[in-house]
Amino acid sequence: MDRLYDYQCLQCNHTQEAWRHINDRKKAPPCDKCGGAMRHVVSKLQARRPTLDTTFPGEKIRNNRSAIEEYEKFQRVHSEAEKESKLGDV
User: Model-level pTM greater than 0.70?
Assistant: First the structure.
């Protein structure tokens, strides 16, 4: 499986991306600008810690329902507060 990797030139500091197989990621291509040697650098996207989805199908639905309920509760409280502030202004 090929992935996109970042490389930086050791001579001119130019950075570029290249598609490589995961086992060949250390085999850097030559620099596009000067033709010099490059090294593999870890990009911010690659350095991000992977998250595993450990939820079960029913949990997502339950979590979505609770989020909707929380939002509706917020809306009720907010609208009640607006009504009270309007009554206080009269």
Answer: no
